[in-house]
Write a structure and sequence with these properties.
The protein is α+β, with helices and mostly antiparallel strands. It is built from 13 helices and 6 strands. It has helices spanning 11-20, 25-32, 36-43, 51-61, 65-68, 90-95, 108-129, 134-145, 147-160, 185-192, 229-247, 265-273, 302-359; strands at 165-170, 173-182, 212-220, 257-262, 276-282, 289-293. The protein has a 6-stranded mixed β-sheet with strand order 1-2-3-4-6-5, sandwiched between helices. Strand 1 and strand 2 (173-182) form a beta hairpin. The protein is globular, with a radius of gyration of 23 Å. The chain starts with 10 loop residues before the first helix and ends with a helix.
């Protein structure tokens, strides 16, 4: 992803919006805390490297940064863009526009190991919770008895769309895993109404992209004090946000929907804080609460509504920056996965051949 050192403002649009609002150039400059000369230059479409100044003008005029520049696809986000990001990701995003190669599973065996670690890590999460978790422990014990089916489900989903399972990484180390599912509208609604459990969503329900997402899992691995808590939290949040950005057809469209389910008391608190609403629907068999993401919900507290509205907006912006690189990265992963399978086959044949030779 190339970040341009200079960009060209869409001067006519900026000027028209200012006039529509009945503001002078001096008014805009004062409200945005920039110089009048900068406002004049922006309206004259003078090339600039001060993207943050343009963002400040945009906030005053109600314009997004991608609307204000002539080549929005190649504009890299800045600290200003992510000032109201729903998680503490501003600095992290600057260094991690794309997941590293090691964030992706490269084989079915890799998925098996990852999902096994996810299952074990969730049990540890519940044990450390220190809250009333008996109802969640009952569901967890049931999933333990279904471990093989549980893992097989994720393998089939991954085979259908390998973006659905993504590791959170810190310094090239896998520290957790997130699972986000782009599903059919039918599967989404059945889960939303409590007619099916998350285990009933299978590879057959998975699409390349969808306006209906299910946040299935976000689990940190037990890394102890070797990874600072903030880095761990940022890595998990980034992985989820990246998946939302690239698996949704367009997170900024009004038909975007997102579901998840709360599998611990901590889950419920975190989800409520970013705009998920509990509609008092309980998942069959496991008893998890089903929550739906509700941007623009007037019943939310103002600070939570602001956070929730920012999620699809920034996911849409993020998508514009990463989607081209995602296509290239996907081709590379397919090649690497093919080579990995080929290596396993060749290595097995070579070892058998050598054993035959040694046996005489």
């Amino acid at each position: 992803m190339t970040a341009y050192d200079s960009i060209c403002p869409r001067g006519n649009l900026i000027r028209e919006r200012r006039l529509d609002r009945g503001m002078t150039q001096e008014d805009v400059a004062q409200a945005a805390d920039v110089t009048v000369d900068f406002v004049v230059s922006a309206e004259a479409a003078v090339v600039t490297s001060k993207l943050g100044h343009l963002e400040a003008i945009g906030r005053v005029l109600g314009l997004r940064i991608d609307e204000m520049v002539s080549d929005p696809i190649t504009v890299r986000p800045t600290e200003h863009v992510f000032a109201s990001w729903p998680w503490s990701l501003s600095g992290f995003i600057q260094r991690h526009l794309m997941p590293i190669d090691g964030a992706y599973c490269v084989s079915e065996a890799d998925v098996y190991r990852t999902v096994g670690a996810m299952r074990d890590s969730w049990e540890e999460h519940l044990k450390r919770s220190g809250e009333e978790v008996e109802q969640f422990l009952l569901a967890d014990r049931l999933l333990d008895r279904e471990r093989t089916r549980y893992i097989d489900r994720y393998v089939k989903i991954w085979k259908q769309n390998d973006e659905t399972v993504l590791h959170a990484t810190v310094d090239d180390r896998r520290v957790g895993v997130t699972v986000t599912l782009p599903v059919t509208e039918k599967a989404y609604n059945k889960l939303r109404r409590g007619e099916i459990s998350f285990m009933d969503i299978t590879g057959d329900d998975i699409l390349p992209q969808s306006q209906f997402l299910v946040l299935d899992s976000g689990v940190e691995f037990p890394v102890g004090a070797s990874v600072p808590a903030k880095k761990l939290s940022n890595a998990i949040s980034f992985a989820i946000f990246y998946q939302i950005a690239v698996l949704a057809e367009d997170p900024m469209r009004d038909d975007f929907r997102m579901l998840t389910f709360a599998a611990s008391p901590t889950n419920i608190q975190r989800l409520a804080a970013i705009g998920f609403v509990d509609h008092e629907v309980i998942m069959p068999i496991y008893g998890y609460q089903i929550l739906e993401f509700m941007a623009n919900n007037e019943d939310l507290k103002p600070e939570i509504r602001e956070r929730s509205e920012s999620i699809p907006f920034f996911a849409g912006m993020f998508r514009r920056w990463v989607i081209g690189d995602k296509a290239l990265r996907r081709k590379r992963r397919m090649i690497l996965r093919t080579l990995n399978i080929f290596r396993s086959l060749v290595k097995g044949r070579r070892d058998r051949s050598r054993r035959d030779v040694l046996a005489g």
